[in-house]
Design brief:
Blueprint lengths: L1 E6 L1 H4 L8 H21 L1 E6 L2 H11 L10 H23 L5 E3 L3 E3 L12 E7 L1 H11 L2 E5 L2 E6 L6 E2 L2 H9 L3 E3 L6 E5 L5 E3 L6 H12 L3 E6 L5 E2 L7 E6 L1 H4 L9 H13 L3 E6 L3 H5 L5 E3 L10 E3 L1
Parallel strand pairs: 1-2, 1-12, 3-9, 4-10, 12-15, 14-16
Antiparallel strand pairs: 4-8, 5-7, 6-7, 10-11, 13-14, 14-17, 15-16
Helix pairs in contact: 2-4, 3-4, 7-9
Length: 311
């Protein structure tokens, strides 16, 4: 199969873990070990999140109030290179002789996207509510709940075009495993003269991965995170893990804007393009591909198969 596999930022630095470089490398090494058997058997393009990492870089950039902080597009590029480097290195260690390439990926967004007025993308570490509220007042942040915690949220405009798509296609056709669109890619826009400039935002990695998978004609998009499956009725006694769903079935349920919502929306985009998408734990990749774990989202069907089924 031709697969786009998206590694969640929270899967590479788990919620609540300290931002220890050695710990992040250990998590990435474990991810690479899980990816290696799949890369041996399938044609894979890899993407990854950067929410925890880009937020930490932003905090570091603000440490010296006498110097201007780097904008989020530059920090996005920095985190894309940092994570891509470690992931590529660990994959080479797992699969010596195979070719890998990390590509800094500019992604065009609309500077008039309404997302700039309603920040939703969580970045950085988690906080208790009181601490998050104090930081918001001190630093001018917008903060929002993220599960049981609170995090800084920033604008997350929709990805419109992946500038490096032709290069990604050529490398994939040459049997190079490409690591690209890290953190959703580097958000850029074009001025009236067609000149590119960076945009203060963080693109949703899953939305960019879905766009990439559709443009590449991939058979499936697999989004790996720190939860086992998509849950319906989350945070209620009726919570259940979905096994299979269609866009029609998912329309009956709501999912959190800052976490599972973008993954479900990206999976629905794949299904509406006639492809499949899966969401599940980074520790269960092979079981997900075998249909024994995670949630698969498939196109609406005229058959008698249910629109929703649960584990």
């Amino acid at each position: 199969m031709n697969l786009v596999i998206a590694l969640g930022g929270n899967a590479l630095l788990k919620r609540g873990q300290p931002p220890d470089p050695a710990l992040q490398r250990a998590n990435i090494a474990a991810a690479a070990a899980g990816l290696a058997p799949v890369i041996r058997r399938h044609d894979v393009v890899l993407t990854h999140g950067n929410g925890p990492q880009v937020g930490l870089l932003a905090l570091q950039a603000m440490a010296d109030p006498t110097r201007p902080a780097f904008p989020l597009d530059v920090l996005g590029a920095e985190s894309e290179g940092m994570i891509g480097y470690v992931l590529e290195q660990e994959l080479i260690n797992q699969l010596p002789g195979r070719q890998f390439a990390t590509l800094l990926t500019q992604v065009v967004v609309d500077p008039r996207d309404p997302a700039f007025a309603s920040p939703t993308k969580p970045i950085g570490p988690v906080y208790a509510e009181a601490q998050a509220t104090a930081l918001a007042a001190e630093k001018g942040w917008t903060v929002a709940p993220d599960g049981a915690h609170w995090r800084r949220v920033v604008a997350s405009p929709a990805p419109l075009r992946i500038l490096a798509l032709p290069a990604i296609k050529r490398m994939a056709e040459a049997q190079v495993t490409v690591i690209c669109a890290g953190g959703g890619g580097i958000p850029v826009a074009m001025d009236a003269d067609g000149r590119l400039y960076g945009v203060e935002a963080v693109i949703d990695k899953d939305a960019a991965s879905a766009l990439l998978a559709i443009e590449l004609g991939a058979d499936a998009l697999v989004m790996l995170t720190d939860v086992a499956a998509v849950m319906t009725d989350f945070d209620t006694p009726q919570v259940r893990a979905l096994k299979r769903a269609t866009p029609r079935g998912l329309a009956q349920h709501a999912f959190a804007t800052g976490s599972m919502g973008p993954k479900v929306a990206s999976a629905v985009a794949m299904a509406k393009a006639g492809k499949r998408a899966a969401i599940g734990s980074i520790d269960e990749l092979e079981a997900i591909l075998a249909g024994n774990a995670g949630t698969w989202i498939v196109p609406d069907s005229a058959s008698d198969e249910p629109d929703l089924s649960w584990w």
